[in-house]
Amino acid sequence: MKINQIIIVLGCIISLICCKQEGKEIMADKNNITSEPVLFDINNDTIKENLNDAIKKGDTIAYLKSLKIFTTNGYEKEFLYYAMKMAEEQHYPLAYENVYTILLRISDENGYRKDSKIGEYYLLKAYELGSKSAKYNLENFYKNKPIPTSASVLK
């Protein structure tokens, strides 16, 4: 069980590091070109519009753009709220998985209890909605045991 969680966390960390490398944008100032990252601003109209389109209209592309912007700028914890909203309002499997992953990553630094069933609930919901990666993770987690329902873990 712990080995699977460590593998998942390491994979996510590696992908975040790679994304941070890709997240740098070239900014041109007439005669000066730098490779400094663009500053993240939660109040940016484009970010607000993408989040609104994702949560209210179910726009998965806007959700993915928002996820990338938040994570490449180091605001994954702050994205947890939007992932939960997208999951609950649009029943988007990836959003359910993102909630699980974010909770798993912040567990040590913010006091989220690893034995809490909330993260497992979100992973199970992703599985129930057809996520193949959630299925893979749960099959490894439960081995030869039947995978429970999301509702049953919160009882």
From TrEMBL:
It comes from the Bacteria. Gene3D superfamilies: Tetratricopeptide repeat domain. This is Sel1 repeat protein.
